[in-house]
Design a protein that fits this description.
The chain is an alpha/beta fold. Helix content is 40%, strand content 12%.
Length: 208
């Protein structure tokens, strides 16, 4: 007969109920990002993505705003590149703008998050290998991450202001430029001076 081992257990650390609840909120934010990224693209359409974020954000805090911009709005803004990507799908495009106003100071500069939200990247599909084509659903990982982060910030009632839209960060008179090429940036900047179409270089870490 095998001898039974006595097993004892004890809690590690000095975490309290508040710390536990904060950990639960962190985990729920991570799981929301996973849900958005892992759901097949035929289900996680732009419209469905926006609906999920709107539901989660509005239930998280009363200090939030959600603007789901339809195709007509995108056309009014002359966002040609954005619209050209959407032409490859029967699903209509959505420009999602979300705000969390947690700071008591309404004039405090906001943190601005920008994320790529292409729910399925079919670009160059004729020359792409089929082996990893299913992974193209994760091309909206940037948008999934920042939206989940803003939802988590709202649930934690953080005393900060966050906006998830480039147009609000720069205003209508300037275009944001992300590039790690100084040569390209100089050319774009020179062209902006000549045309009057102003640009502003956004920060990038070296590993980008």
């Amino acid at each position: 007969q095998k001898k039974k081992m006595a097993v004892s257990a004890k809690l590690y650390g000095s975490g309290d109920q508040e710390a536990w609840q904060k950990g639960v909120l962190f985990a729920s934010g991570q799981n929301l990002a996973r849900q958005l990224m892992e759901t097949p693209a035929n289900e996680m359409t732009p419209t469905r993505f926006a609906e999920i974020i709107e539901k989660n954000l509005k239930s998280a805090s009363s200090k939030t705003e959600v603007h789901i911009r339809p195709k007509s709005w995108i056309e009014e803004q002359a966002m040609g590149s954005f619209l050209s990507v959407a032409k490859g799908s029967d699903e209509p495009p959505v420009f999602l703008e979300i705000h969390y106003k947690g700071s008591p100071n309404a004039n405090e500069p906001p943190l601005v998050f920008v994320g790529k939200g292409i729910t399925f990247d079919s670009g160059g599909i004729s020359i792409k290998a089929s082996a990893n084509m299913d992974l193209m659903r994760a091309d909206m990982g940037g948008a999934a991450t920042i939206c989940s982060a803003i939802v988590s910030a709202a649930k934690l009632n953080l005393p900060i202001n966050i906006i998830g839209a480039m147009d609000v960060a720069l205003g209508s008179g300037a275009t944001g430029v992300f590039t790690n090429s100084s040569w390209l940036w100089n050319k774009l900047f020179e062209a902006s001076i000549e045309t009057g179409d102003r640009v502003w270089r956004m920060p990038l870490f070296e590993h980008y």
